[in-house]
Amino acid sequence: MGIETRLAWRNVWRNKRRTALSVAATVFAIFLVIISVGMATGVHEKMIEDAVRLASGHVAISGAGYRQSMTLEQFVPWDGRLEEVIEAAPNVRAWAPRISSFALISYDDQSQGGMVIGVDPAREKNVSEFSQKVNEGRFVSVDPGPTVREIVLGRKLADRLGVGLGDEILLYGVAYSLETAYELFTVVGTMALPDHRLERNLAIVHIQVASEFYVYEDRITEVAILASEAAESDSLLADLEIALAARFGDQLELQTYEQIMPGLVQLILIDDAGMYITLIILIVVVGFGILNTILMAILERTRELGVVLALGLKPMALFRMIYLESMLLAGVGLVIGLSLALPLLAWLHGIEVPLGGDIAKGTELFGMEPTLTFKLNMINPIGSTITILVVAAIAAFYPALKASRARPIDALRSL
Amino acid sequence: MIRIALSFAGRIGRTLLISLLFQGVAIAADLSEFNLEQAPPNVDARQLARTAEDNMRSDRTFFKGEMTVVSPRLTRPRVVAFHSWEDSQEKKSLIRIDAPSKDKGTGFLKLHPNLWMYIPRVERTVRVPPSMMLQSWMGSDFSNDDLVRESSEVDDYDHRLLGIDTGQGSAVDRRSYVVEYRPHEGAPVVWGSIVAWLDIESGAPLRQDFFDEEGERLRVMRFGDFRQIEDRFVPHHWEMTPLDKRGHKTTIKIEKIEFDLEIQSSIFTTRNLKRRD
């Protein structure tokens, strides 16, 4: 340790109480920043994960124009070519083909329009959470079977129709061949879904049954793909786009969850903006705390500083020393703060903290599960530390400059 | 909680902004592609619309016809034969499908504002819910809503004479008035406006273009094969082209139409709907 550092370290602890208060402010700030960012990251990732697992995955492939019309008209040819491309793409966690269309669902004297999605249960269980959300009965069988057409309904849809397990409901719609499509389906289960709109509208059947019902032959409406991570969505989309353009031209359309659910992205942006504004205010206050502490310290030490300058210490060396004092002050706070926040966040990482009461109702309003999740990643502690160091560096500049510019004669005379 | 409230406020704000921006701004339909002559000043556009509507409607009407649906999906057109009774005073009608065999006997009963459907194969009567109204009717380019909608082209619209089409251009082949129908506020209408070509000689409609609020043309309906029935000049060939679906077209050919009949009201009951004739 150089003489300057040693001096600075001793100087910092001259006024123990003042320094301790300043350090405490820094500890508090870094702790709050890391935990808040960790919570926001965790909650947002969970929001995205939940949303994509009830929708079209991170990346969806559909016929060009499908998102606007949502009809059977725009299809994806399902002849094995697309399957090959997806299997060859890197960063694919899971994928599932689907046939979705609108149909009239009727039981007794009740009827309602609903979204009927044909799924491949074996593949779907790795992509969506539909099968895990079954609250009564079971999901559609992996093997569709020749006689009974099975259907699983959203809980609210089943309630509204007044159907129970084992009841036969009528589905009526228009097939791809423009013939009328109608068949009786047996309800084998209901799903409790966090998204109420989905719970009121969704019906799930086996993809093979849907294909026969809609006379869709070797076509599907979309493939839902889960990337290894949400952040990989864009690069996965780019990879697939190149491979698909070569084989399918402009027949297909690819979209990330951000394009499919712009509302979700905006919600996260607004949430982040609110959080960062609060955190920036906090960090600026800490910066002023450091400024105040150091400024007070050099005012107290004006005589001493005058002496060292008179003895021939270079102003630049004095500047460095005062600067070092500020950074040490911030550094101590950061070390303590990090050593408190990181183990806590590491412990919270991966735990789902249940929420109750009004907050739970609030999150359900947005179709989210009422839990808090935390995530510890590298960028959060590193980014937070650097931010606070930068603020401390800016705050230290003025006191250090003031000290180094003092004229020895004035300094000696004062006090 | 604050964050949720914040984002909620953001949503409401956006919705408000959008609704403010678009309030009452119905953009006029673009008709510059048609060369229109100035119309004489003493023509009552509303009366023209009334004559056109009366030409096709009566209090109680029987109709038998065939609908042909053309689509790029199909190698040969889908043909649906049907007949119907309508009591326009009571806002009731019954449609029975005659062909294809899969749908033979299927009935649609309109008891305003409800639409009922009976499917004989599965012996079920179903009320078509509001959420299904915009879905295709029998695979055609008409929606269930087109069947049920009870709006009057006279009473629910304001009418403005745009000019006279000489019948030389591409729109129609007879000299006709071109009238714009603009719906009243709150009228049960899905269109932003309708532009109708009405035959000067007979008053019958030759063509109608349907636009949305942004002035985008959604549908073109052409009428042809006019036949005189008493004092009416009735088109027996209707052709509807939806402009949002490339390559689609639905035509209706009338085989038989009878006006001002005596129709028993017992025909418009769910009980009768279940009979298969």
Descriptive overview:
The complex is a heterodimer of chains A (415) and B (277). Helix content of chain A is 56%, strand content 20%. By secondary structure, chain A is α+β, with helices and mostly antiparallel strands. In chain A, the strands form three sheets. Chain A has a six-stranded mixed beta barrel. Chain A has a two-stranded antiparallel ribbon with strand order 2-10. Chain A has a two-stranded antiparallel sheet with strand order 13-14. Chain A is elongated. With 277 residues, chain B is α+β, with helices and mostly antiparallel strands. Chain B is built from four helices and 14 strands. Chain B has helices spanning 2-22, 45-56, 144-148, 270-273; strands at residues 36-37, 60-70, 78-87, 92-99, 107-111, 114-119, 124-127, 157-165, 176-183, 193-199, 205-211, 217-229, 232-242, 249-258. A 14-stranded antiparallel β-sheet of chain B has the order 1-8-9-10-11-12-13-14-2-3-4-5-6-7. Chain B is globular and about 55 Å long. Residues 1-25 of chain B have low confidence and may be disordered. The chains are: A alpha+beta (415), B alpha+beta (277). The interface between A and B is medium-sized, with 32 and 34 residues.
